[in-house]
């Protein structure tokens, strides 16, 4: 008996990572989305995953969507953009390639309490696409929140979708196709030089610094004009992955500048930081997450490092950080 094909909905998210169907990685945004919109949408997909192909209403706490922000206003704005967003998805219908235009998010109800919930639905056509999907990206949650631009997050998703392909380590895109997948607004970054400077180069630098892969995007000319690019990717070795992990757990302050090689540090470093810039133990982050659910622990770490600059070295940095996190969350309730 032939083995049933593995489907995307059979993949399971875990505490460190979430699943995103490949069709929703390489989509083209007819209505542009922001970095916050894409992060929130990934969280909505993750929350709905156990019944994502069924016509049911999903429920999620608003505190999980707003991250370290104190207000729900940004969440509401993102939800409204996602409701009105139209995307083009490459699918196969009756054995032939096709483009399907769908909405990303269906009807929803947001309770007005600050600690309330969002009830939402996945549109029927999108449920069908997800049900039929056989390719997906596994996204590391910490990397998703560490990346500082929409273009970097999109490139990260593209590489995560392709990284495990056995016989392929590159793919060619026309410039128009690359702009479409990255979500560049129409009429913006129309030349290769502008696209490379404003979107491609910073995104590649961040993905190389923070993910498990190294990435290149090389221009391809037709005559004298750049008309296509080649995306290349390869898995980092153990040492490279360790550097990426330290980059993710380190403060957001100056992270993008360090990734692009433009700066060493923006703020003075506390004396107790070691040469690798990774003073806290991994279990300290886990403890902070358990004690303060709903908060962006890495944002709090950045606040702590800024506060600690110029002060006497802490005898126990891990305890000092946890004490700071407790006071910070008490002063900034969700």
Q: DSSP strand (E) fraction? A: 15-25%
Number of strands: 11
- Compressed to H and E, one letter per element, the order equals EEHEHHEEEEHEHHEHHEEHHHHH
Number of helices: 13
Helix-and-strand structural type: alpha+beta
Largest sheet, described in full?
Answer: 3 strands, antiparallel
Strand order within the widest sheet?
A: 2-4-5
As a whole number of angstroms, the C-alpha radius of gyration is 21 Å
Question: Quick check: average pLDDT?
Answer: 83
First CA to last CA: what distance?
54 Å
The proportion of residues forming helix, as a percent range, comes to 40-55%
Poorly predicted segments = 263-278
Shape: globular
Secondary-structure map:
Elements: E1 17-21, E2 28-29, H1 35-48, E3 58-61, H2 62-66, H3 73-84, E4 86-93, E5 96-103, E6 108-110, E7 117-120, H4 124-132, E8 136-140, H5 141-146, H6 150-162, E9 170-174, H7 175-182, H8 192-210, E10 213-222, E11 225-235, H9 238-249, H10 255-259, H11 282-291, H12 297-308, H13 317-331
Antiparallel strand pairs: 1-8, 2-4, 3-7, 4-5, 6-7, 9-11, 10-11
Helix pairs in contact: 1-3, 6-8, 11-13, 12-13
